[in-house]
Amino acid sequence: MSKNKNIHLRRLKLLIQRYKQAYITQGALLRLSELASTISDMRDFYPAIHKMVAEFLHAENFYVVFYDNSTNQYSAQYFSDEKDQAIIDQVSSNEFSIGLTGYVARTRQALLCDEGLFNTLVEQGEIQAQGSPCAHWLGIPLCREGQVIGVMAIQSYNAQYRYTEVDLALFNSIGGHTITALDRVKNRELLEETVRHRTKELQSTNISLEKEIQEKIYAEKLQAALYRISEITGSSQDMASFYLAMQQVLAELMPAENCFIALLNKDKSTLSFPFYLDQYSEPAIERPLGRGFTEYILRCGEAKLINAEYATKLVLAGEIQREVSNPNKLNHFCTSWLGAPLLVEGQAIGVITVQAYHQQYQYSEQDLSILRFVSQNIAIAIQRKLATEQQKQHQEELERRVFESTQELRQTNLFLRQQVEERKKVEAKLFYEANHDALTGLANRQMFLQLLKQQFALSKRQPKLQMVLLYIDLDRFKNINDSLGHHMGDAFLVEASQRLKRLIREHDVVARLGGDEFVALLTNLQSKHDAEEIAQRIVNSLEQPFQLDEHQVHSGASVGLAYMKPEHTTAEALLRDADTAMYQAKSQGRNQFIVFKDPASESVS
Fold it and tell me: What global pTM score does this model have?
């Protein structure tokens, strides 16, 4: 009787140990799935994997090395070692190939290696000693689609700590899911890079639109100035008030605190200054023609923008002369100068000028255009004093120019509205592309996670609302893709997505997470059995043959089903449970659905 009792106790202890190990393994895989769902930068992925492994195993020294089958080259993706960290950049691909890393890649088997086995492998010529000798080493192959693509390893330099077969099993389980997690992170990183690129393009569009808006504002300001000029021309009682009003209009468009108007006398031998405003000089008096900027404009017969460099060239060419008017006073030379001729019937009768004495402001070609137009209006006003009929003709010309300017402004406004509409279309397109899968038109991972979080929060506030998540993985998709080509593989995914949309209700959501993985969010269920019926219909539908052009292919689906429960604290936790249930369905024969059950609750029960 005592012997049977001891046997029973040993079996019970073994069962408890197995449950404990299964719980640890499940926790590690859940942590790995969580990392794949939250990390979007590959630079953060490997340190996070290292930290996670260190929570379950002695892993102060941890590294991941990738292997390229086409080139037989090894490359270190992540390396953390207390002794050899400083020399990792000098380690060549060949050195990895002849060490324990290369041995695991060649044999495609996990390896638990102590000093004795290490020496045996060296003696047999299987490996060569590399780096600092360790007390114990544990390495596993990383495989994708049946091919070794790398090795993940941990090692201990402390002889008191030795890895066990249990550690090997746990590490092997983690490694088996690391590649899947890695692919998810890479896909998400690529998606975010695409979003950033499209966001940059949209920002460029916004900058261009803002520039157009500023040009429109300036055009409206100029239009208002043109109307003011028209009013001044018709309402001024005398030339003095007309000149002052014109200077005030100019001051609203450009710096014009230094402004004067010079007119030729009848015999064109002298210049008079009916309006003269200057911060450094007294009002100018009538003088004979000389070699100044004003006379240069009269000779050219067109508006000019003259800066300090241009002025120096004119002096050297003999076009102008600069004289010191009073040796006892400080003479101020302008740093930027604008002048436009006052033309009447094609003949220059004078010049209007603005100038600046400080480097802080330099006139532009736009300023020159404005002054050129103002000069025409001043000339028209002067001509009105000379002949009433000529004044009337010039007034009509002004009205025509104002009308043409108004038409140009209307065209500008129409173009701006068109640009705004185009921008709205671009924004709508970018939003759709950023939130929908390009191949199937379903919601993508980003949009689905947002909807899941919203529904999760709603269900937390209203617990009576039934909420279920289905995680769907298409069976044999790789075989279809490899045998028929990517074009048929895409056609298969599109047909599968159409079947999924037909199987769920109108208010439910189905999305493609990437590759052959889909999810469905079911809400407002009358009974829990409704979700299981939908899951079974999905399995049955995807089991039916697919007709792709002249090819008939067979697939199926592994479906993980997770009910929202009070213990779910985040939407991501619900997604992980559905993902875990899907992997259970896949591992138990595929073409079925599995309802997620918490290992912790099962062990307690």
Answer: 0.35
